[in-house]
Design a protein that fits this description.
The protein is α/β, with parallel strands linked by helices. It folds into 2 domains: about 1-50; about 55-295, Metallo-dependent phosphatases (Purple Acid Phosphatase, chain A, domain 2). The chain has 7 helices and 12 strands. The protein has helices at about 1-50, 90-100, 120-125, 140-145, 150-160, 195, 215-220; strands spanning about 55-60, 75, 105-110, 135-140, 165, 170-175, 175-185, 205-210, 225-230, 260-265, 265-270, 290-295. The strands form 2 sheets. A 6-stranded mixed beta sheet has the order 1-12-2-3-4-5, covered by helices on one side. The chain has a 6-stranded mixed beta sheet with strand order 6-7-8-9-11-10, with no helix packed on it. A hairpin with a 2-residue loop joins strand 10 (about 260-265) and strand 11 (about 265-270). The radius of gyration is 26 Å and the shape is elongated. Bound molecules: fe (ii) ion. Fe (ii) ion (FE2) binds near residues 79, 111, 141 and 232. The site of fe (ii) ion has 7 residues, from loops.
Amino acid sequence: MDKIEHSRRCNVESLDMSEKKGSVINRRNFIRTSVLGSLGALSYAHWVEPGWLTVTEKEITLPKLPSALDGLVIAQMTDFHFNPDKDEPLIAEAVAAVNSANPDLVALTGDFITDRADVFDPLMSVLAGLKAKHGIYGIMGNHDGWSKNQQFFRNGFQQNGMEFLVNQGTGIRIRGEKLYITGTDSIWSGTVDAPACWRGYTGETVLALVHEPDVFDDLRASHRVDLQLSGHTHGGQCRVPLIGYAPVKVRYGRKYIYGEYAQNDSRIFVSRGLGTVGRRVRFSCAPEVAILTLRSPK
Ligand SMILES: [Fe+2]
């Protein structure tokens, strides 16, 4: 009996030991897999996604868009934060993507640089390849305004035959219909002067270029805004896959973070932009060129 009891006890003890051993190995495997997965995700977010251009093709219906402007194509590029050592292939690819869409207008909605003004000319030499039937329009971003005054950027635009709109608007005629394009200063690094933006406005469809998206509510409360194009948020720069939650939010970009939003007869589209600020990482939020086709209601 003693021998049998002893043998049973040994079997139970050896079973306990192998279970403990198994759970230690499982824990080690879990930790190893988690560490390798995290390192892989960090490497991907740093080395792969910031250089991975995506082209978003989207139709936006504007409730008051005249039928003559139905089908108008606007290409938007924003938030370059240009780093000439790393970003030139990405921006050249983005320029080629815009040109292949044969746009009517190109909107460049600010943050050309982060803090080094000397990178602006190299960026403009790449952007000089852009083509649009009815013009290329740019505005100030907050980083631009923190680094240089608007005249610095305006000179670069004018030298390349592009318009730079800071608290001013311009009316253009497309297919016999007038379109009013207005551009604001950055609200963070400058002052948004809405009355100046709409000076000379005569009641036509309004395309507003505004770097920081959350200015939208104030502008549309006092003036007609058919479509506002903005950047600034980088779409969050890092988002939770599948659910798209962006944990990091930026001042003046907390309400409208990415994509199209509607408020009464006004629409806003916020692009993820092309560059990065802070650490060079993007996750589930790749650099974007937006090709937007405007539609009038059916
Ligand atoms: Fe930015």
